[in-house]
């Protein structure tokens, strides 16, 4: 197992959870490792090498350690947390968000750690002049980007979003149903990328943000999702927190990754439910792999929801 795992462990520095880049072989192998041997190897690697690993590798390992089912108070988990804290000043904003997500999922987040992560994130943007420089460049641009362009485009969108609250560094938008929180549009069905309803594609919140303020650097920057910090499903309406500065974007992303932002959903249903049949569910959920086949392992597996593990989910 060690010889097979080492090549994929060496790719940890380029693997970012959720992107499928670089080290997906290890993540995939971890999911299919019903024996737990690969998870044990992962813990051994952390104990042996964590002090020498880069911030990206530390952030990746935190997520992978949680995925391996390691106990939150295991030696490997506590050592990984300690080493990461000692190197916080070397983390990028994206690495801090990934680290925070992994630590939270692994049950290693507390109030003091959250404060240290927020402080490290804010420190990255001290003296950041990107917004000022972008506005200065826009003023020199001979092409007048008038607000009418945004108004004209918004007029072609059905049920355009509304601004609920406008703060110094954040906007709260009211997202109508039918609007997509995807940040990119496919080129085949919508080659113009205009998000108009005539293309048969849902309009994008990111395009609305771009048209809302042409002089706001974050709104025009796809690397920070045009300021969009979280998602709602296509047919779901509700409040969206969006950022007006680079600092607020990463700070909000950090707070969402640590589950510091509380979200409440209201579902409208048809019909009536008799009194006394309401039930309150407050159980943590986990997707558990169920192997099929005589050998106990196969290329096809099913995932089922089990309880008593992971994040706590509440429903009524």
UniProtKB/TrEMBL annotation:
Residues 170-287 form the Pseudouridine synthase RsuA/RluA-like domain. One of its GO terms (molecular function) is pseudouridine synthase activity. One of its GO terms (biological process) is enzyme-directed rRNA pseudouridine synthesis. It comes from Symbiodinium natans. Signal peptide: none annotated. SUPFAM superfamilies: Pseudouridine synthase. This is Pseudouridine synthase RsuA/RluA-like domain-containing protein. InterPro entries: PsdUridine_synth_cat_dom_sf, PsdUridine_synth_RsuA/RluA, RluA_PseudoU_synthase. PANTHER family: MITOCHONDRIAL RNA PSEUDOURIDINE SYNTHASE, RIBOSOMAL LARGE SUBUNIT PSEUDOURIDINE SYNTHASE D. Residues 182-203, 290-316 are annotated as: Disordered. Belongs to the pseudouridine synthase RluA family.
